[in-house]
């Protein structure tokens, strides 16, 4: 009888182990296998070996003898397998991919996701995120972005707080479409979620040194481990120097060198088995030189001396003594002096029926940025901007502990954000005949946002799930004491203005798990972005009036599929956006002043497109990836300034007069095609060593800005080719890499803009050749 009981117990335990293996493959993420680790050496799927503690004949065993069951599973070649069972078109990027594709700053992320643009506004630290054609250009960052950046779950409405170096990153997720239904703040365009690496229980440390062209060096280091059995730490830092590739056309001086440093510390505490407490603190300093502006076309009085730059990396700058004295500037080169720091506290407690998450964050930024936006040694558009701001975020959310077998799921929460900021924007127009003065625009802007959300999911069948979400967001912001001073001319005070948004948004969706590795989904989402203000160089009361909130009704269908034991992954999505009151940076014409920038609303426009991604592991040593995005945008109702007519009329009469054109059916100018792909091959050169060889590329289509502007504002398409070669042991304890970015040395522009009568561009980086050494302790 004892033997029968033991036999039944063994069979039951083995069966449970086999079932767990299968569930792991389809419902939880399996750790990726490095290409150097041969899959064929792993045990077959679901294999088990039974080891007896006492060797001997079965009849000699007693009821106290123990049996040990060892289950060995094959690790999946793909990453982010859990996300394959979520009905969304999220693009997930691993830390390994970020390193291999030379992603150094936040703007580099656009090389890895479809229909994504991340650009600096006039070369400043202000980042403009655009996803599926939805985005917002904001130099002063006093408005809410259409695409919200997140770091470790904390939203950053002030985008300059995310413009520092990317280091010690675990993963990045790019989520297109309206969001804010399960966390954070509502958006119309989506999210870019950056997750940094967490503390580990085992001691682990590493250092990496990277040297490249133009005297660029990048040093990364981290250390992690346990302080006690339930308290872990992680400390990571990065230092980035050099890399400036712009040259002063008159003096030969270089411009654009990086001088940034950042450090991040984390503590993870588990006071009991059901509670996690995480504390993060960070500090980042940016004293880099500003990027140079290349002259594309010069319509100013200095066109005879400084026409179009033939050298792609030429620029120029200077600062007038009077302007330097006004702003307290003690250098001649355009440069930044920016400081970011903050603390995040997150706590989670698991109850029997759900998990409670509470997080608090305080982030602060101090910006001092001087730029010569005309690219000449004349004062026609010299800009100095200061910003002192802080953001406090509090979020409380509650969700059930999701189980693949449970029919019902729910998420509910409250999000609160308060921002306090003061800004001063100085311009030197003293060499510009139409103005001839220095100016300052200053204001303060308190803001409060409160979002409440609920998301419910229900499985009507084992493989068919419905999802419904609703959120309500209220946003209140003010423009306090908005003042513009034209030194030696006049003072303009526009008083205090307010804007209030109060709207419901939501989502309904369906998910069908056709097979354990094939998901089909469809959803309809409504998103909202609050209104805001034009704050840069305000000269008329019309600029100070708030713009309306924008909304999007988004339709999406998609599918996610893994084939051939997860060796081939094919994901695809199609979308259609009904866009209302789209906020764009346009122009208004002031009769006594000229054309000035101001935010305007597009009553109605549409955006549609498709996205697809492929990841293939045809052999154990070859990995192929391909991402494709196609999108189109059209204005349905839009009357905008016709700049060509305005300029022609002024040239003829000397009078600034507004002329409008109807742009119904006109393309909105978003890049139509974005693509990136890679091939990584592992060569086993020695029994315990291997070489990784990569060739990868990225392509972005041409981008046009608001209609009615001359063609110079179209940023041409560009194609970039990169490659790397890494030698490392199978243990990956160390590695040595040589690499090249922009291998073909293509000449391309990151952005184009206009400063008074000078049309300028910021050139993209030339070919960089470098080497990287990495050692792990």
Automatic annotation (TrEMBL):
Would I find Isomerase among this entry's keywords? no
Which residues are the signal sequence here? 1-30
The way this protein sits in the membrane is described as: Multi-pass membrane protein
Give the record's keywords alphabetically. Cell outer membrane, Ion transport, Iron, Iron transport, Membrane, Receptor, Signal, TonB box, Transmembrane, Transmembrane beta strand, Transport
All copies of domain TonB-dependent receptor-like beta-barrel, residue ranges: 295-743
Give every TonB-dependent receptor plug domain span: 84-190
| InterPro entries recorded | Beta-barrel_TonB, Beta-barrel_TonB_sf, Plug_dom, TonB-dep_rcpt-like
Q: Which PROSITE patterns match?
A: TONB_DEPENDENT_REC_3
Compartment annotation: Cell outer membrane
- Principal localization reads membrane
Protein family membership: Belongs to the TonB-dependent receptor family.
Protein name, entry field: TonB-dependent receptor
């Amino acid at each position: 009888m004892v033997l029968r009981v033991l036999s039944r117990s063994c069979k039951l335990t083995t069966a449970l182990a086999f079932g767990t293996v299968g569930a792991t493959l389809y419902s939880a993420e399996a750790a990726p296998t490095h290409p150097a680790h041969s899959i064929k050496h792993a045990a077959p799927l679901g294999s088990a070996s039974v080891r007896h503690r006492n060797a001997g004949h079965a009849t000699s065993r007693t009821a106290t003898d123990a049996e040990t069951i060892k289950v060995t599973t094959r690790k999946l070649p793909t990453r982010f397998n859990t996300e394959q069972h979520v009905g969304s078109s999220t693009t997930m990027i691993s830390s390994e991919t970020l390193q291999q594709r030379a992603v150094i700053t936040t703007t580099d992320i656009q090389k890895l996701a479809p229909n994504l643009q991340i650009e600096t506004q006039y070369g400043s630290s202000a980042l403009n995120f655009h996803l599926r054609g939805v985005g917002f250009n904001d130099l002063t960052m006093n408005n809410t972005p259409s695409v919200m950046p997140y770091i470790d779950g904390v939203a950053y409405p002030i985008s300059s707080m995310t413009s520092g170096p990317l280091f010690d990153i675990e993963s990045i997720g790019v989520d297109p479409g309206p969001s804010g239904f399960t966390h954070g703040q509502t958006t119309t365009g989506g999210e870019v979620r950056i997750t940094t690496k967490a503390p580990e229980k085992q001691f682990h440390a590493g250092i990496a040194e990277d040297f490249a062209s133009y005297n660029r060096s990048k040093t990364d280091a981290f250390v992690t481990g346990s302080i006690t059995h339930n308290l872990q730490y992680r400390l990571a830092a990065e230092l980035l120097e050099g890399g400036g590739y712009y040259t002063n056309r008159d003096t030969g001086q270089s411009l654009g060198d990086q001088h940034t440093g950042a450090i991040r510390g984390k503590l993870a505490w588990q006071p009991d088995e059901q509670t996690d407490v995480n504390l993060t603190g960070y500090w980042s300093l940016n004293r880099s030189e500003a990027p140079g502006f290349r002259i594309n076309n010069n319509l100013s009085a200095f066109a005879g001396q400084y026409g179009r730059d033939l050298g792609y990396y030429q620029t120029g700058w200077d600062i007038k003594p009077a302007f330097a004295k006004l702003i307290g500037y003690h250098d001649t080169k355009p440069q930044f002096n920016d400081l970011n720091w903050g603390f995040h506290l997150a706590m989670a407690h698991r109850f029997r029926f759900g998990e409670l998450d509470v997080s608090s964050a305080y982030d602060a930024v101090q910006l001092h940025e001087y730029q010569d936006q005309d690219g000449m040694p004349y004062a026609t558009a010299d800009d100095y901007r200061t910003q002192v701001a802080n953001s406090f975020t509090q979020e409380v959310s509650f969700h059930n502990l999701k189980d693949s077998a449970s029919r019902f799921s729910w998420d509910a929460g409250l999000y609160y954000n308060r921002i306090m900021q003061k800004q001063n924007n100085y311009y030197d127009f003293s060499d510009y005949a139409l103005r001839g003065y220095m100016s300052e625009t200053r204001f303060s802007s308190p803001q409060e946002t409160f979002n409440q959300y609920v998301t419910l999911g229900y499985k009507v069948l084992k493989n068919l799930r419905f999802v419904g979400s609703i959120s309500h967001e209220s946003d209140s912001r003010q423009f306090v004491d908005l003042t513009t001073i034209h030194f030696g001319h006049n003072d303009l005070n526009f008083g205090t203005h307010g804007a209030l948004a109060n709207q419901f948004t939501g989502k309904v969706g369906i998910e069908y798990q056709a097979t354990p590795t094939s998901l089909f989904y469809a959803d309809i989402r409504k998103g909202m972005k609050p209104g805001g203000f034009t704050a840069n160089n305000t000269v008329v009361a019309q600029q100070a009036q708030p713009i309306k909130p924008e909304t999007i009704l988004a339709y999406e269908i998609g599918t996610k599929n893994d084939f051939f034991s997860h060796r081939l992954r094919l994901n695809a999505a199609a979308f259609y956006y009904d866009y209302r009151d789209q906020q764009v940076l346009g122009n208004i014409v002031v009769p006594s002043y000229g054309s000035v920038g101001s935010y305007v609303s597009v009553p109605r426009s549409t955006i549609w497109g498709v996205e697809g991604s492929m990841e293939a592991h045809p052999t154990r040593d070859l990995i192929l990836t391909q991402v494709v995005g196609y999108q189109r945008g059209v204005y349905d109702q839009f009357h905008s300034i016709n700049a060509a007519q305005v300029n022609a009329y002024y040239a003829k009469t000397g009078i600034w007069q507004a002329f409008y054109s109807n742009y119904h059916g006109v393309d909105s100018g978003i890049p139509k095609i974005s693509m990136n792909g890679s091939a990584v091959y592992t060569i086993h050169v020695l029994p315990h060593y291997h070489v990784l060889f990569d060739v990868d590329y990225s392509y972005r289509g041409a981008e046009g800005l608001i209609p009615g502007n001359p063609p110079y504002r179209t940023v041409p398409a560009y194609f970039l080719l990169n490659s790397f070669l890494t030698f490392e042991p199978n243990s990956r304890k160390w590695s040595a890499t040589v690499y090249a970015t922009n291998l073909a040395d293509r000449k391309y522009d990151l952005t184009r803009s206009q400063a008074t009568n000078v049309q300028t561009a910021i050139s993209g980086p030339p070919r960089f050749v470098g080497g990287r050494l990495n050692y792990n302790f």
